[in-house]
Each structure stands twice: as C-alpha cells, then as structure tokens.
Amino acid sequence: MTTATDKLPPSDVEAEEAVIASLLVDEEAVGRVEGLVQPEDFYRDQNRWSYDAALALAARGEPVNQVTLAHELSRMGRLDDAGGLPYISRITTELPTPVGVEHYAGIVRRDAQWRRAIQAAMRLVQRAYQGGPDLTEALAAAGRELDGIADPAASGRELVSLAQVIDRWWERPGIYAAGRASIAVRSGLMAFDDLLGGIWPGELCVIAARTGRGKSLLLLNLARNAAVAQNLRVLVCSLEMSRDEWAVRALARETGIDSRRIFDSQLTELDERRLMHATGELHPLAVDLDDRAQQTVERVRRAVRAVRQKRGGCDLVLVDYLQLMRTSRRGENRTQEVGEISRGLKELARDFDVPVIAAAQLSRAADNRPNGELPKLSDLRESGSIEQDADKVVFLVRGEEVHRDRAGTALLVVAKNRNGPTGKCAVRMDPATALCADIDAPAEPAYEREPAPWAR
C-alpha cells in the first residue's frame, strides 16, 4: 500500500522555469509576480536561487536578463550548482509565452501551499501521537498554521488590542530621532503645514492643478525642503520633467537665477560663483531621481526598494504625475486604469510605510470655469478612485487666476484632509526661479518681488 510519504511533494517544475524565463524576457514581469510568489515557494533549488537573484537585481534597479542573472548567480556562488549558462539559455528558449507569468506564478504558489499543508498535517499527526492534555492548544495551533497557508498575506498580521497599537505608536521614532525632524513630512511652508498637519507615513497626498500651473515646481520644493530641513531620503519619479530639468530648476531655486539663463548658459561670473555654491549645498542631499517616461506602480516599487538599499531607507516618494503612469493592462477603460494606479500608490504607501505625494491633472471642466472659482474634488481627471484613495487632496491655483493683483503667488486649497481640517493658504511662487516659499519669507538674492497686496 502506497502512503502519502512515498509520494513526491506537489510541484510543477515547468511552471517554475516559466516564471524565471518570463523575468528574463519581460522587464515588467518582476513587478507583476513578486507579490504573488516568494523564493521559498520554488521546489527546485536552481529555480529558487534564480528567482532570488532576479529579485536582488530588481531591488537594485538593475535590468534582469540572461547576462545579469548569470552574473548575480555567480556572485552568490550558485551559478554552477544552478546549471550554468546552459540552464538559463534552455529555460528561455523553451518558454511558451511570457504573457501568462501571473498564471505560472499562481501554479508555483499553489503547489507551495499544498506542500506547507502536508507539512502542517504531518506535524499535527506527530503531535496527536504524543497525546497529552493540550488538545485544544494543539488544534488551535494547527488552525492558525492552516490559516497562514490559505492567506499568506495575513500571516504575522495577528489581532492586536488598541492598547498594543497605542504602545507601539509611542515607540516610533520621535522628534529629532535619527537626525530626522519628525515622523510626518513637512512641506517647509509654514501656513500650509499648519493647515495640512504634514504628510504621514502610509498616506497618499494628491496635489492637483490645471496644466502648467506649477505642480512640478511645488513638488521640487517639497523634495528640497524635506531633504534639507528634515534630512529625509526622497525618491522622485518624474514623468513630466527629465533629470536634467530637475537639476537646473533645483539650481535656479537655490540661486534665484532664471532657469532659462541656466539652460542657455547665459551666465555672469557672479552667476557661476553662486551656482558653484548651490551645487555644494545640493550635493549631499539624499534625493534620487527616476525619470523613465514609461512608469508603472511596479516600477515605482522597484525604485523604492533600490533607494532603501542604497540609502538605508526611503522617507518620501514623489510622483509627477499620476495620469501619465500606465498599468500592465493597457487598452482598458482609462478611468479604471487610473483607479488601479491610485490604489496601487496607496498600497505602496501602506506597504512601505512611507508618505507618497502624487501630482494629478484636473479635468477640462476646471478650464471652463471663470477665474476666481476654486476647483472641486469632482474636477479631478478620472476622479472617482483618486478622490477615494487619497488621504489628502490639495489644489494648486495660481494667484492671477483668483485676482489680477495676485501675480507671483499661488493658493493651496486643501479640499480633503482625512485627519485634519480643510481650508486654503497663500504662498509665493516664481516659475522662473522655481521658488515656492511663504508669503513673508525673506526674498532670495535675485528675487526681490514684494508680496502681493492681498497677501500682506
């Protein structure tokens, strides 16, 4: 009679190899499967090592292909044991199609769950043979183990009392801990921070405006202020501006020199000295830029992991801007696609316990409104999910749109604040020098404009 122990554990080697091969030919595959399957889910050692190596490459922001995977396996001392280059070449050649990578990963995960169920059952059998008075506890332990197998995401997320959560909150890094000014990210704009209450880890803040109103400018200032004032490690995913544009505008913001003069190299000797000084000030800031034109939530996740590995952590993520992002399911209803993106950014904020600030575009309905009328939440382009997923929604309105005497300023309208009040405040804004500051802040060296009369 054949017993369960005489049989091989459930596994599908072809599905495992298909997952690895898919990662080598589709750059988006890592982001689609890393949450579905873990290295320990692979039955064959060579496949487990290869998947682990692919995740390590992706975490560093490096491409995953046959050459880099072989190099990483060699670095890990596993290339020969895995079968060397012939193994990598064979599984890539035999891959039916990379389109179904989630399907292959699902098979690997299912078989891994079956193997864990077998192991849990065998442990229960051994415990049952031992007998003893602790039957209730043994059954409860087996139940918890089976629950963890059925829902891996829930394992480790045990029920906790409110008192435990409060105690853990007090144990979080406090004011000035580890050289950082606060748990919440501050914008550096006093009136805005007083109104918004900062942006907390796990929160998604959306900053929305019409085209060309200064969303990127505001994000640049938020990144700069967080890095300077709070010593935060900032990731900027910019689909709107290139890394060179970010660099030039950052220099303009520090020096007060018109960014167009910097781009065109129309600089005086004094300008050059000021730019050299600003370069020294900006150089040590922990700000990393990802300016790939084709950006997805999965790629942002990979960039966050790369920053965490490079800097030892990531304290703030900025995305410019939300509607330029894409999903792996192109061709669907655009509103549904944007909804998937906004949910993905919110999940990213929760998973990494990091504040995420995403710029967003207002719909054309906002363009048809007369000057002086402030935007509404319904003006968010493809708005339903963005409004629902965001913890905070801020509208950016240029001062001259509200009143002709308000040029050189902007109005920040907090339309949604899950844990605080709504309202509005004025800031000083100069697109030429990329400066956004408090109305009463001292002027930069080359920025001597007086505050608008309405803001005094």
Give a verbal description of the structure.
The protein is α/β, with parallel strands linked by helices and 456 residues long. It has two domains: 157 residues, DNAb Helicase, Chain A (Orthogonal Bundle), CATH 1.10.860.10; 279 residues, Rossmann fold. Helices cover 48% and strands 12% of the residues. It has 19 helices and nine strands. Strand 8 and strand 9 form a beta hairpin. The radius of gyration is 26 Å and the shape is globular. The termini are far apart. The C terminus is likely disordered.
What's the count of strands?
A: 9
Mean pLDDT: 78
The major beta sheet can be summarized as: 9 strands, mixed
Order of helix and strand elements from N to C terminus: HHHHHHHHHHEHEHHHEHEHEHHEHEEE
Q: Which value, in Å, is the CA radius of gyration?
A: 26 Å
Fourth-level CATH superfamily of the largest domain: P-loop containing nucleotide triphosphate hydrolases
> Helix tally?
19
Strand content: 5-15%
Report helical residue fraction. Answer: 40-55%
Q: Structural class of the helices, strands and pairings?
A: alpha/beta
In one word, what is the shape?
A: globular
CATH architecture of the largest domain: 3-Layer(aba) Sandwich
The CATH class name of the largest domain reads Alpha Beta
Question: Low-confidence segments, ≥5 residues, pLDDT <50?
Answer: 153-157, 173-182, 443-456
Distance between the termini: 91 Å
Tally the structural domains: 2
The CATH topology of the largest domain, please?
Rossmann fold
As laid out across the biggest beta sheet, the strand order is 3-2-4-5-1-6-7-8-9
